């Protein structure tokens, strides 16, 4: 994985847009990143997050993965709690070589897969000049 293709910016604590007085703790989901000649694939582990609780966005060349995991239902008196709930946040700076209009994502069994195809090389072309 080259730094030119994808630079990782982990954020474990961040502020919501428009919120200036309150900071929340975010979990950084574990990711694997794979690269081929044609694409970069990001696989993020987001167990317990539903598609409704997941927000994937691209703004100013930054791919942001945000999710919210609700606590599981309690069946009786809680004795031990290790299942962490709350917000996920992970950001990646996307290089210019990524075709930002054709990014695809899927969520299956708590695993988010984001496919970032690389843009092909610019093809030579004739440019028509309009007169008038």
TrEMBL record:
Domain SHSP: 22-132
Keywords: Stress response
Superkingdom of origin: Bacteria
PANTHER family: HEAT-SHOCK PROTEIN 20 FAMILY MEMBER (PTHR11527)
Family recorded in the similarity comment: Belongs to the small heat shock protein (HSP20) family.
Stored InterPro entries: A-crystallin/Hsp20_dom, HSP20-like_chaperone, Small_HSP
Pfam families, alphabetized: HSP20 (PF00011)
Species of provenance: Desulfobulbus propionicus (strain ATCC 33891 / DSM 2032 / VKM B-1956 / 1pr3)
UniProt-annotated stretches for the region Disordered: 1-22
CDD domains: ACD_sHsps-like
Official protein name in the record: Heat shock protein Hsp20
């Amino acid at each position: 994985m080259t730094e030119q293709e994808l630079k990782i910016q982990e954020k474990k604590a961040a502020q919501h847009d428009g919120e200036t007085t309150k900071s929340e703790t975010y979990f950084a989901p574990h990711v694997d990143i794979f690269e081929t000649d044609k694409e970069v694939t990001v696989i993020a582990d987001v167990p317990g997050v539903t598609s409704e609780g997941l927000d994937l966005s691209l703004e100013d060349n930054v791919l942001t993965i945000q999710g919210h995991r609700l606590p599981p239902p309690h069946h009786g008196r809680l004795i031990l709690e290790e299942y962490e709930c709350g917000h996920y946040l992970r950001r990646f700076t996307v290089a210019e070589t990524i075709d930002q209009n054709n990014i695809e994502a899927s969520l299956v069994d708590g695993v988010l897969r984001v496919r970032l195809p690389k843009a092909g090389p610019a093809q030579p072309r004739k440019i028509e000049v309009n007169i008038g």
